[in-house]
Amino acid sequence: xxxxxxxxxxxxxxxxxxxxxxxxxxxxxxxxxxxxxxxxxxxxxxxxxxxxxxxxxxxxxxxxxxxxxxxxxxxxxxxxxxxxxxxxxxxxxxxxxxxxxxxxxxxxxxxxxxxxxxxxxxxxxxxxxxxxxxxxxxxxxxxxxxxxxxxxxxxxxxxxxxxxxxxxxxxxxxxxxxxxxxxxxxxxxxxxxxxxxxxxxxxxxxxxxxxxxxxxxxxxxxxxxxxxxxxxxxxxxxxxxxxxxxxxxxxxxxxxxxxxxxxxxxxxxxxxxxxxxxxxxxxxxxxxxxxxxxxxxxxxxxxxxxxxxxxxxxxxxxxxxxxxxxx
Length: 327
Prior knowledge:
Oligomer: single chain
Shape: elongated
Helix content: over 70%
Number of helices: 14
Radius of gyration: 29 Å
Number of domains: 1
Strand content: under 5%
């Protein structure tokens, strides 16, 4: 067993345990054990368990993304301050000040990628489990928590005539090659499209104008096109079961982001303005920026009151000085 296999071993067991648990439950309520749809629902159940467990991480990601957007003006000033300075001391000073900004806003550039990084071991584990089904069946062994009988059931299961362990590049034993091609291509398109739409709706609706003009945003725009392309090309080697997993998790992310953008948008973004318009149409008070505006109004009122008091004091002092001079 090599180093990568050693690392992936517990994840393979965890992934297979969750799948087998859902499969046993679905079989208990009457679904055929060897049916492809039973195993498909088990894979979808795996997605639900993992994504539900990642909700706290997602909340942290949202806070980190907001923090990154709020620090963009300060980050822009910092970049202007050190513009053209290429010496080592200036680079170190800029890096230290930049880290201080991240600490102040409670964020860092890697927080936005945290959910995906956490999911990747489970993704690779599922890939190893499903791609090793045929080899495990031929050797008469189980794989992870799946018994030898369950391996045979999974290897013989299919949806629309395409085995779940088959892939576009390698096909599958006992399956309809045309069905494998068609289903794989449809799933790859669904996987990449859902990923693209999710990121696009964040950039189009949940980013302020300052954030959109930042250098960080230029990198995000590049990733908007690069990541779907990478997964689309890699998808030709993914078993259909893995494509189902990744498409389902992308749909979860899309729905999750839609809820956040509609109910808890970033201040200053188009979604925030749309939320305020909906609240105004219903006769509700402003939700976003209300405290900020109230504080600004209170400060303005206090400043005006102080100015008025100073003017009154000046008017009272001046006559007394004149009367003293006359005496």
